[in-house]
Specification:
Number of helices: 4
Radius of gyration: 24 Å
Helix content: 55-70%
Structural class: mainly alpha
Largest sheet: none
Low-confidence stretches: none
Length: about 80
């Protein structure tokens, strides 16, 4: 079973880049892109520096060294 979908010219042009041969259908191109996303997409890993910053922030929070949202708004002069 097939269906018709609406593509804007910009989207069509972007899909054309991924066509491997002239008569490749848009269905084939979309299937290829879906396969790539499903099989090769990975969650980005955090750097050691980022992990250290997260650990330090958690320690500050445990010690109570943080601002609440309302305190931050007051310091910034925003309406609470």
């Amino acid at each position: 079973m097939a269906t018709t979908i609406k593509l804007y010219d910009k989207t069509k042009s972007q899909l054309d880049i991924y066509r491997e041969y002239k008569n490749e259908s848009y269905d084939e191109v979309i299937q290829k892109l879906v396969f790539i996303v499903k099989n090769f997409q990975k969650d980005p890993e955090l750097s050691n520096e980022t992990l250290e910053q997260i650990a330090k922030a958690r320690e500050r929070i445990k010690k109570g060294n943080f601002l609440t949202a309302s305190e931050a708004k007051k310091r910034l002069g925003l309406n609470v």
